Amino acid sequence: xxxxxxxxxxxxxxxxxxxxxxxxxxxxxxxxxxxxxxxxxxxxxxxxxxxxxxxxxxxxxxxxxxxxxxxxxxxxxxxxxxxxxxxxxxxxxxxxxxxxxxx
Length: 103
Hints:
- Strand 2, helix 2 and strand 3 form a beta-alpha-beta unit.
- Helix content is 32%, strand content 24%.
- The protein has a three-stranded mixed β-sheet, sandwiched between helices.
- By secondary structure, the protein is of the alpha+beta class.
- The protein has one domain: 2-Layer Sandwich (GMP Synthetase, Chain A, domain 3), CATH 3.30.300.30.
- It contains three helices and three strands; from the N terminus they run αββαβα.
């Protein structure tokens, strides 16, 4: 929640979600999904730098997926992070070119 709260403070961010993804080096790293505000442009490097100003480095996302499609939601309106993990696992090689790896 702390990482999501920080990312949500970015003026160009409409919505965000954070998950853990597999990492050969660390076992798991932080990955953020961001939906920008309409008319706003934001990139992965900007989100990572913003987080590094606000929270400890080990909590910051190592990669960010900026997307326009809405997050999958439960009937109660909560983000279905398991679906984001599944989407990431299926499309990680295709989206890798669009992600910025920090570290």
